[in-house]
Amino acid sequence: MYDQIISNKRKTILLVTLVASFVIALGWFLSWQYNNPAILFLAVIISFSQTLASYYYSDKMALMSTGARLAPYQDFLALHRLVENLAITAGVPKPKVYIIPNQGLNAFATGRDPEHASIAVTAGLLEKLTKPQLEGVISHELSHIKNYDIRVMTMVVILIGIISLASNFFLRWQFWGGGRERGEGGSGNQIIALLGFVFIILSPITAMLIQLAISRKREYLADASGALLTRYPEGLASALEVISKNARPISGVSSATAHLFIANPFTKQNVSSLFSTHPPIKDRIKKLREMV
């Protein structure tokens, strides 16, 4: 468990470096193309400020996008007590608890560290699951918090968002006839310009593949850690079965935040395609039942 926490902290540093490197590389290319060094300086400022702001506020944006609202303690007493007890067992502070007003069955954890974490569950999840099943889901989310998965997940959201936004902005600029000073030069300049365009086009795809690789692996790890927390793997396994059979899309979710959820928030069936942010639910259930 400790090794996983260390690994996640290293991944956070790597993702921050990737975000900053991409924006600075884009700034360098634009400053080269338009022969304006000020663009590179602006890119460095944007890279730093955007990463810092997203690090502290991306959890709030994720909660806001789904319409999640704080769960009043007295109105959701059983849920709060369940979270409190499992948080004590996991050895983490009790996270804030949110309710998503949606009849789909899903949940996610977000935040930058265990001291600033939140768990959100849908209204449908509370209605459909039994207490052991709900314990399984909450323990899964608490495992993300304890293992610092939430910090890595936050940085993945930042990585996807910044790269997609910057790439889209650059391509639109070029389409509408942004400066072409360097591209009209010799063959050397044209090669550099071509490489720059390839970099811009492939970057969002690379970012998405990073998202998929991280999110799939961490789901298996959180399943195992959550099952160990409750000492009842069948609780989470049966919860995933119910979620799979009753799944429906969650409104307000973007592709950048889909990996935060315990199950794919877009589709009604198990997704096993190359571009799914989640491993197939049937495989997760199988692994959990092998722990019994």
What does this structure look like?
- This protein is α+β, with helices and mostly antiparallel strands and 292 residues long.
- Helices cover 65% and strands 6% of the residues.
- The protein is built from nine helices and four strands, in the order ααβαβββαααααα.
- A four-stranded mixed β-sheet has the order 1-2-4-3, with helices on both faces.
- Helix 1 runs antiparallel to helix 7 and helix 8 runs antiparallel to helix 9.
- The protein is elongated.
Task: Give the key terms.
alpha+beta, 2 domains, metalloendopeptidase activity, Zincin-like, cell membrane, 292 residues, HtpX_protease, transmembrane, 65% helix, 4 strands, 6% strand
Identify the overall geometry: elongated
The largest sheet is: 4 strands, mixed
pLDDT below 50 for ≥5 consecutive residues: which ranges?
Answer: none
CATH level-4 homologous superfamily of the largest domain: Metalloproteases ("zincins"), catalytic domain
Could you tell me how far the N terminus lies from the C terminus, measured between alpha carbons in angstroms? 20 Å
Reading the helices and strands in chain order gives: HHEHEEEHHHHHH
| Number of discrete domains | 2
Give the CATH level 1 class of the largest domain. Answer: Alpha Beta
Rg, Å, rounded:
21 Å
Return the CATH architecture of the largest domain: 2-Layer Sandwich
- CATH topology descriptor of the largest domain: Zincin-like
The share of residues in extended strands comes to: 5-15%
How many β-strand stretches?
Answer: 4
Report mean pLDDT, rounded to a whole number: 82
Summing up helix and strand content along with how strands pair, one would put the structural category as alpha+beta
Cofactor: Zn(2+)
InterPro entries: HtpX_protease, Pept_M48_protease_HtpX, Peptidase_M48
Transmembrane segments: 12-32, 38-57, 152-171, 191-214
Enzyme class: hydrolase
